[in-house]
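Researcher: Before we compare anything, I want clean individual predictions. No alignment, no superposition, just each chain on its own. First chain goes here; please echo the sequence and then give the structure tokens.
Model: Echoing the first chain and its structure:
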Amino acid sequence: MRRLLDGLYTGAAWLAALCMVGVLVMVLLSILGRLLHFHVPGTDAYAGYLMAGAGFLALAHTLKRGEHIRVTLVINALSGGAKRAAEIWALLAATGLACVFAFYSARLAWQSREFNDISTANDATPLWIPQIGMAVGAIVLAIAFVDELVLELRGRRAHDTPAESLRNE
């Protein structure tokens, strides 16, 4: 199960990376179009869709690597059972919020498909297509938070502090 979950998080991160490459392609296409006097409609909109997809698809991988921004002032002041209780409370709250967000993101994509909602930009893209990236990223994030909560409850969660937070610049 651990390999499956880690593969899910890594796969979502790879999709996020592909989205970033897509953003680069859209920006380069737009620049080349201006230089060579041709226009590809929708490059701005597609760059935005891909950027949103990249952001959402990378959330779970970032969480699992301990790179999300956390305010640890209170938790670090605690020790023992109080610290563990605070961690569990924070993970419960985050899991609940992530699950609600995943539900409504998936619902938004589904409703956009049902209502044939299209972009108001000149590309007229059906909005459920770019919303899939947000929904999938939110669902994978919710799974990652459930994973973190279960690991914490079982006492197997790693409490690594990223090296970047140790620097004081």
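Researcher: Okay. Second chain, same rules.
Model: Second chain and its structure:
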Amino acid sequence: MVYFLYIIIVIAFLDTFSQLPIIAPFAQSLGATSLLIGLIVGMYSLANMGGNIIAGQWIDKFGRKKILVIGLFFVSICLIGYAFVTTPQQLLLVRFLHGIGGGLLVPAAFAFLGDHSRTSTRGKTMAFSGACVGISAIIGPAFGAIITRTLGIDWVFYIISALFLVTAVFVMIILNENFSTKQTEKTKFDTEATLKLLRLPPLINAYIGAFSLMLTLGILAYMLPLKIAASGQSIAFSGILMSSFGIVAILFFVLPTNQIFDQVKREKMVIVGMLFVTGSLVILSLFELIFILFIAMFFYGIGFACIFPSVTALVIDHSNKHERGRAFGLFYAFFSLGVVVGSFIVGALNTPPNQGLFIGAFIMLCLALIVQWRIKVVGTSL
């Protein structure tokens, strides 16, 4: 069961990562302005926020499996829509619908995984889930860039759409629902229940960590492909470069280093990861040499590896089974908000790639200082 959930997580993130190196150039090819490109890149995540919050309520009410299947089918349909857009406005609409669908399936998958995790090895379990995201981060950008170059951008969407459709069928056949009517009767849907999850100090740190991680990824998705294109390199190289951080993260997750997630406080791991990401973005903004760019992505991979399992484990640690869907819905809403804010800021400012990357580094450093201040002053215990 757990291993099948890991496979689902790989697939759930594949559509997002496969578009990282192609969506900004695709929007540019349709005639989108700098600001509109930022909106198009960020629209998926903006809509994703709504999907996450809705999914959080539905997962705890109707069960994990139903929402997961609905999300997979809906995303499969939306991916086909990309192949038929001819204007930036149409692309913006498809991104909106795609984001809503994606917002349903990811919280459901992680709520399932959280239900099957053990307290003593929860950090390691979420490290493996991070490895799944890392696998998507490796396969996705390289796949999107290479298929675009060889077969055309439409085939990226056709292939992944078919993959989501097949996965939905397998989920219906293989995955057993761990939800019961008794649990539904215990679950209350009110504003106070949601505010409770927004007020818990450990969860606030998890939300900040998720927001900061995806803010930088949103900036990378926008700025790095444009930086590589301006240097005369092919879009395929952009995909390979963005995939490299996933390799580093996976090694960190699957090697004995994954034991650190159950030995070191989660918030400390988040701060260390944020500092690595800050350094990565500074290097990306200052240098053009390919070798140095790969070093920067190596640092980004370490930062990703430190942050992702730690913040997801925090969510599981501080939510019970009857509110876990809602907790992950809020968590991934902050994930999505990060991408929206990151891509929108650099798009609205119309900054060159190097300046945009440096802005991302500055924001990440500020957020790391906020988390550190919260640990010392506010505290993180219940």
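Researcher: What stands out in the second chain?
Model: The chain has a mean pLDDT of 84. Additionally, The domain at 2-378 is CATH 1.20.1250.20 (Growth Hormone; Chain: A;).
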